[in-house]
Amino acid sequence: MPNPAPITTIHEEYAAFKTKELKLNLTRGKPSTAQLDLSNGLLSRPADYLAADSTDCRNYGNLQGLAEARRLFSELLGAPPDQVLVANNSSLALMHDTIVYSLLKGTCDSRTPWSKQGEIAFLCPVPGYDRHFRICEDYGIRMIPVRLNDDGPDMDEVERLVATDASIKSIWCVPKYSNPTGAIYSDAVIERLAAMRTAAPDFRLLWDNAYAVHHLTDERIEIANILEACTHHNHANRPLVFASTSKITYAGAGLALFAASPANIKWILARFTPRTIGPDKLNQLRHVRFLKDHAGILSMMEKHRALIAPKFQKVLDIFDDKLRGLCDVRWTRPKGGYFISLDVPQGCARRVVALAKDAGVELTPAGATYPHGKDPQDRNIRIAPTFPELPEIAAAAEGVCLCIHLAIAERRGNIS
Ligand code: PLP
C-alpha cells in the first residue's frame, strides 16, 4: 500500500488547484452536446406524418403508441409489440405514474389501492438511483435498503423480506449497467426474482432497463428476459419493464418505453384513458424513420460509445494512477451505463464532495445513492463522466483524487 503524500504537499497542491478557479460539473448523467448532435437527423426530417396504417400522427389517438414504434423497441424491451407501450419522453415519468396509479387505484392483481393498505414499502438495492428514491420519499413509501452486489441484489435478503411481509410491494431494479455501480444482474439472480414467493399478491419488479444497449466495451452483454422468466414461474404480472431513448437520441425529447404482461398493459391503458387522448406520435414516427430497426439502434449506440468510452477511460486512468492501493478507496470499472461508483474511507464522502466543491468541482451530493440521501457509512460518491469535455474530465478527476488524499489526511488528524 503506498504511503499517502506528505501533508504539506497535499495542502499546497489543493491550494494550487483552487487558484485555477475551475467550474467543472460531474453531477448528472447527461449526454454531451456531441452525443445529442448524433441525432440531429431527427430535426431535419421532411414533413412526414402518415404512419404505415395511415394513422395521421398529427391527430389524437393511439394511446399505446404507433405500431411501428412498438415494433422498433420490441427487441430492446424483450417483449412482443402488443406488450409494448411507447409514450412521451421520460421513463421516470412512467415509473412515477405507475406507482401513483397503484397507490390510488390498485393494480390488476388487487383492486384495493396501495394507499388504503396501510404503510407500504419498496426494497431499494444500494447504492442506487437517487430519483427512484425521491419518488418513494415523495409518496411516503418506506424504503428498505438491500445490498447490491456485482451480480444484482443480495437475493437471500430479498427473498427473506418479501416472503413474509405483505407491505413490501416492489423492488427497484436497474438490471444492466446499474446506476451507479454498473452491476449486471446474473441469470441466477433474475431467475430468483422471477420465482420467489412474495407475501404481497401484487408484488412488482420495477425493472428500469435504462441502459439496455449502452455498452462501453466490445462485449455485448445480454441479460435474461425478465418477462419470460416471470411468465415461466406463473408471475406474469410481476415485472414492469421501463426504458427510454433519452440516452439513445435526445434526453429531453425522446420516447419513454414500457413493456409488461397483457393484463398490465390493459391496466395502464385504463389508467391513461382519463389522462390523455394520445402521445406525441410525430416524435414516434421521426424516431422510427431515423433509427429504422434494432440494428439502427445498436449502430447509434456505437457512435455514443466512441464519444464517451474515452471519458470513462480517462477517469479510470487517473484513479489508477493517483488512488491505487489507497486504503479503503475503490471504484467500479463499468462495462456500460453512465456512471463510475467511487467508495472512499468511511466518514469521508461528504468531506471529499465539500472540498471538491470549494475547488470548483461539483459532484453529486454524498449520500444521494442511498434512501433519504443518507449513506450510513458516508462512503459512496457517484461520478458522471459523460457530459464535460475530455480535458475538463481530466482536471475534475485529478481534483477529486486530491480531495480524497486531503480528506484522508485530515481524518488522520494531520491537518487541522
Ligand atoms: N433510470 C435510470 C437508472 C437513470 O439513470 C436515468 C437517468 O439518469 C433515468 C432512468 C431517467 O430516464 P428518463 O430520461 O427516461 O426519464
Polypeptide structure, described:
Helix content is 39%, strand content 14%. With 416 residues, the chain is α/β, with parallel strands linked by helices. The chain has 2 domains: 7-30 and 298-411, Alpha-Beta Complex (Aspartate Aminotransferase, domain 1); 48-292, Type I PLP-dependent aspartate aminotransferase-like (Major domain) (Aspartate Aminotransferase, domain 2). Helix 1 (7-19) runs antiparallel to helix 14 (390-411) and helix 12 (294-323) crosses helix 14. The protein is globular, with a radius of gyration of 22 Å. The mean pLDDT is 96. Pyridoxal-5'-phosphate (PLP) binds at residues 29, 90-92, 129, 174, 179, 208, 210, 244, 246, 251, 256. Pyridoxal-5'-phosphate binds next to helix 5.
Provide a concise account of the structure shown:
With 416 residues, the chain is an alpha/beta fold. 39% of the residues lie in helices and 14% in strands. The longest helix has 30 residues.
β-strand amount = 5-15%
Largest sheet: 8 strands, mixed
In this entry the ligands are: pyridoxal-5'-phosphate
The CATH architecture classification of the largest domain is: 3-Layer(aba) Sandwich
What is the top-level CATH class of the largest domain? Alpha Beta
Low-pLDDT runs of 5+ residues are none
Mean pLDDT equals 96
List the helices and strands and how they pair.
Elements: H1 7-19, E1 24-26, H2 33-37, H3 67-72, H4 74-77, E2 84-87, H5 91-105, E3 121-126, H6 130-138, E4 142-149, E5 152-153, H7 155-164, E6 168-173, H8 187-195, E7 204-208, H9 226-232, E8 239-244, E9 256-259, H10 262-272, H11 281-291, H12 294-323, E10 330-331, E11 340-343, H13 349-358, E12 361-363, E13 380-383, H14 390-411
Parallel strand pairs: 1-12, 3-4, 3-6, 6-7, 7-8
Antiparallel strand pairs: 2-9, 4-5, 8-9, 10-11, 11-13
Helix pairs in contact: 1-14, 8-9, 12-14, 13-14
